[in-house]
Design goal:
It is a single chain. With 238 residues, the protein is an alpha/beta fold. It has one domain (2-236): Alpha-Beta Barrel (TIM Barrel), CATH 3.20.20.100. The chain is 42% helix and 19% strand. The chain has ten helices and ten strands. It has helices spanning 30-37, 41-53, 67-77, 95-100, 110-113, 118-129, 141-151, 172-181, 200-208, 222-236, and strands at 2-5, 8-11, 13-16, 58-61, 82-86, 105-108, 133-137, 157-161, 186-190, 214-218. Strands 3-4-5-6-7-8-9-10 form an eight-stranded parallel β-barrel, surrounded by five helices. Strands 1-2 form a two-stranded antiparallel sheet. Helix 2 packs across helix 3 and helix 9 (200-208) packs parallel to helix 10. The longest helix has 15 residues, at 222-236.
Length: 238
Amino acid sequence: MFCKIEGVDIPLVSTGTSPFLGAGQFGNNAQIYLKKFMNNVSAVLEILEECYKAGGRGIQLIPAGKIGEAARVMKETHNDFVITGSTYPGPDPLLEKLIELDTKIIFIHGMVSDEKDEKLIRLVDEVSSRGVIPGIAAHNPVSTLEFAFKNLPDVKAFLIPFNANGMFMGDKKKLEVIVNNNKNYSFIGMKTLAAGKLNPKEAYEYISEHNICAVTIGMVKKEEAKISTKIALEAFCK
C-alpha cells in the first residue's frame, strides 16, 4: 500500500483536501463541502478513517482550517498513517504547520509553481533546508514540469492533475508522454476523478496504464471513500 519516493514510504492512495477546502472545480457543491469540512475535525476524520479502513494510508494536506488537526489525530492513532502536503498559496506558505505534522513531502502549491519564478526556487530550497523532501504541484503541468526539469534538477516528486478526461491536464497527450518517458521522477496524480465526472473503475484503469506511482483522491462521503480507495488500490496492484 506504499511506494518509495526519495527513499520514503508514501501511500499509494491518500485522501485529498480539495473538497474540504471548497475548491472551485466542484461547482455548486464547493460551498457545501467547505461548510461541512473546513472547520469540522470530526467530519474530516470520518472520511480519513473510512479511507484508512479500505487501505488508504495518508492525506495530501493543505494546512487550512481544522484539516491539520484531523490529520494529527490520525497520525497519533495509526502508526502507519503518512502526511504529505502542499504549501498554502497565500503570502505565508505555512511551512511550520506542515513541518510540525511531520509531513514527508512538501509540494510547492501550483499557484506558486506555475509562475516558474524565484519564489518557487526559494521555497524549494527552504523545504530542503528543513530536512523535508521538496516537491512541486502544478496546475499547468506541461510547462511547469519542463521548467522544473531544467531549473530544479534535485526535485524528483511532482503532484499533477491526471485523469482519463484530460481535465486540468492542458495538453493531455504531451503530459502523458512527459510522465511516461521520465521514469527517474515520481508522479502523484491528483484530480484523478475529474472532479467527480469519472467513475473510479474507469479513472484508475487509466491511471494504471501510466507512470503514476500514487494518487490523492477527493472524498466527501464514507461509501465514496471506501469504493474509490479499494478500486484505486486494485488498479495499482494489478
